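Input.
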Amino acid sequence: MPLTTGATLGRYHILGQIGGGGMGVVYRAEDPQLRRQVAIKLLLPELTRDETARQRFLQEARAASALDHSNICTIHEIGQTADDEFYLVMAYYEGETLTQKIARGPLAVAEAARVATQVARGLSKAHHGGIVHRDIKPGNLMLTADGTVKILDFGLAKLSGSEALTVPSIVLGTVAYMSPEQALGERLDHRTDLWSLGVVMYEMLAGKVPFRAESAQAVLYAITNRSPEPLMTIRPDVPAGIRRVVQRALERSPADRYQSADDMLADLGTPISTATRTKAVSTGQETAVPSIAVLPFVDMSPQRDQEYFCEGMAEELINALSALKHLRVAARSSSFKFKGAALDATEIGAQLKVRSILEGSVRKAGNRLRITAQLVDTAGGFHLWSERYDRSIDDVFAVQDEIARAIVDKLKVNLLRGAAAPLVRQGTEDVDAYNAYLKGRYYWNRRHAGGFQKAMQAFQEAIDKDPEFALPFSGLADSWNILAFYGYVPPAVGFPKAKAAAQKALALDDNLAEAHTSLAWATAFFDWDWRTAEREFQRALQLNPDYGTAHLWYAFFLSAMGRSEEGRHELRRAQRAEPLSMMTNAAASFFMYLHRDFDRGIEEAQRALELDPSFGAAHSFLANNYAMKGRFDEALQACHTASDLLERLPSVDAWAAYCHARAGNEAKALEMLAQLSDPSQKRYVSPYHLAMICVGLRRLDEAIEWLVKGYEIRDNWMVYLNIDPMFDEVRADPRYATLLMKVGLVDS
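Output.
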C-alpha cells in the first residue's frame, strides 16, 4: 500500500518518497522518539507472501542488520504493518547517489577508484559475515557529504548457502547490473556482487553501462553472450591496472572472476590486514596463502660476468618453491620485470600481489662464491631472514636448498614431499654442465633468433659435459619449437628436433613439465596428432599447475580444435600465472584475433607494449588486429616496427603485403609477394603466409594452391586453418574443406 506524505508507519512520520524499484518503495521519515531522520523501505507483499518466505526474509534481514561497517548503511529495525507487509528502517544520509553523480559525466579515474575501494571494503565485511547483497548498482550507493560511500538496501541480501528468494514474475536485482549467473537464474554466491561492482566501475569510467540494449531480454542476452566495448577505446586515460580490475571483475565465469572482495581490494591498491584475509564465503578457498616473489640476484663479481648465474639462481629457487604446498610463487616473467628497478619491497609487493620478496647477490672469484640472500616482508618492509654463504662453486646446489628451506621455515609453509628430500632438484653433479645450462636459459629468455642460437650452443655444451642431464635437452626442445613456429627454420627441420630432444629429456626425467609441454607442442603443430598432444599438455599441467607456458600453448591448441571456451579458460590461467609476461599478454592479442575479437586484441597488444615497447611479437599481433579492423595505416606502422625488432621475419612482411593489397597499393603487394616467394632466397617462408597475401590481392585460387603446399610440407600454421579469420573468403571453396579434413581439423 503506497504511503503519502504525513502518513505514519509504526512510530515513524513519512516525509516523502525518495525512491523505489522491483523490491519495494523507499521513503524518508522522521523518528520522533530519537529525533532523527530515517529511510524506510516498504517491501512488496509478494516477497513475503507465505510463511517460509517470511521466515527466510527475517533471517536474512537480521543477519544484514548485524553488519557494522563504515561503508554499509545501518539497519535500525525490521517492522510489519497491519496489512502484514514488512519494512526495513535504515539510516538516512545527506548526499547524492552514485546514479546522480554519473549523470553529470564520467568520474575521474582517482575518484572512481576511491568509490570502488570503499564499496569493496563494505562488500568484504558483508561477505565475511555470510551476506550477499545481490543488487549492487549506482542507485544503491550513497555518496555522503564527507566523501564516504554507503552501500544501501540490503533488501535483496541473502545468507550464504541459503535458498534464493524467488517469486514468480519478480526480477530479483537490476537487469543491467546482474551477473550472468543471476541473469540465468542460477545459484548465487558472493562473486555475483563482484561482477556488479565491475559493472559499476565500468559505468563510472565510461559514463555508460557495459551491456546496453532496447529491452531487458536483450540486455540479459548481452550479459551472458557478449563482451563489453573495451574501456581503452572509450577512456584511453584509464591506467592498465584499473582496466584489468574491471576486466577481471567482468569475467563471465565466476571461477575466473575475483574470488573475494579482498583480492579485488589488493588489485585496487588497498592493503588488506591479515585479520580480514579469512576463508572466502561459500567457496572454501583460503585467501591468506603465503606468497613470494624471487627477484634476480645482483651480480657483485669483479668482472660483472655472472648475470646468467644470478638469474639462474633465482630461477632454480622459483622452480623449487613452486613445488610446495600452500605457497604462491610469482612467475619468473613477472618477478624478473623488476630487475634493476628502483622500487622498494612494498611497491614491488603491491604490483606482484605477494607478501614477501627474496632478493640477494652473488660474488664469484675463481672457484669461490659469496651468496647473500634476504627475505623481506612487503607490508612493513622489514627483514624476516637474511644469510651469507661463503662456499665453493661445487656447493651451489646445497646453498640453493638451504635458502629454500629457510624460506619454508620463515613462511611456515608445508612441504610437498618428505622433509629430508632436497627441495632443489640437482639434475647433475657436474657444475660446469650446470653453468652451461644456466647460460642456455639466460639466452633463451632473450627470445630472439641470435639469442636462441647462443642458447642452443650452451645447452649442447651442457649435454656434452653430462649426457644424463635432462634439463638442457628440454632447453633444446623449447628452442627448436620456437624457431620452427615463428619460421626462423623450416617446420620439417625444427619440429622433429624439438620432439627428439623432448623425448630424450623425458627418458632421463619423466617429471619435467617443460619437456612434456614441448613434446605436446611439436606433436600438435607438426605431427597433427591431437590425442597425444592433449595427453602431454595435461601431464605437464598435472606436474606443474602454475606453468604459464603450458596453459598458454594449451589455450592455442584447444582453440585450433574448435574448443574456444576451454581455450579462453586456459588463456586466463596463463595470464594469472604470469601477469607481467610480455609473451603471455602479446599472445593474448593473437588469441583474440583468432576469435575475431579485434578490439580486445588491440587492447591486449597495447597492454604488452606497456610492459615493453620494444617487444616485437606484440607489434606483430597488433598489426593483425588493426588489419582486420581495416585500419591499414596503423597496421603497416606496426608491421614496420615488428619487422625491425624481429629481424625481418617473413610472416610480418607477409602481413604488410596483405595490408598494402587491401589498402589499394596492389603493385607494392605484388612486389613483396614476388620477393617472399622467390625460391632462390635462403630463408624459409611459410606457404600459409603467402596464401594470406593472395587473399589480400583477391587471388583466391592462388591462395588455395599455397595452402595445399602448406599441407604438403606440414606447415605448422595449417593448424589454425579452421578458425583463422584471414581465410573466411575462401572457406566456402570445396578444396578448402578438403584441406580441413586432410589436416584432421574436421571429420571426413
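Residues 159-172, 270-287 have pLDDT under 50 and may be disordered.
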